[in-house]
Amino acid sequence: MKYLVIVPTYNERKNIAEIIPQVLVISDTNEKVLDILVVDDNSPDKTYDVVKKFSIKDNRVNLLHRMNKEGLGKAYEAGFKWALEKNYDYIISMDADLSHQPKYLQNMLDGDKKIDLLVGSRYIKDGGVVGWDWKRQLNSRGANLATRIMLGIKTHDVTSGFKRFSRKLLAEIINFGIKSSGYAMLVETVYFAKRKKYRIAEFPIVFFDRRAGESKISGELKKSAKIVLRLALERFKHL
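The chain above was modelled as a monomer; its predicted structure follows.
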């Protein structure tokens, strides 16, 4: 079984220098193949140069250097297509800011292979968030609850960016087409898996607020709300 961790980056030079060695440690302690692909949208801080240096020393580290900043959804779409072309069996999405602790990759590797979408969840028993004030936690939980109700999704953390996709599911998602260029693709992929009756499961993670760099989520709430509303309208048309 071949696993690939995809990490989209934009001005994450400091964080990616910590993430890559931690992913490789997990890879070293497993018999399974675990590689990493960094999808960088031409970061002004030259994050891609840091990744290049790692890739020269270790062929498990790969770089997809894109020339334009097009959003999280487009970066993941490019990474997903790369993974499918390279024949990976399972593809893992992970944030670049160390909010997703690399130690949880072991859960992705050990998870039931019959599960098509395995979600690292903040909002189930033993999951949680560290470093957010009550307002941000309330906003996140409220957005999750509203989205779950509107789309009829049982998954508790629909906005989690820490997911493991089966090759079969991911190929169908790409064939169908990712509609969102931004953070709404996190919801879109869960909704697609649910609608197509793929097997979905969650395991608990503790999410840490970023330690370095700036958040890229500013302005995404309204865009994501529009995508969720469109998906909800599509859902009710087919009821």
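The mean pLDDT is 90.
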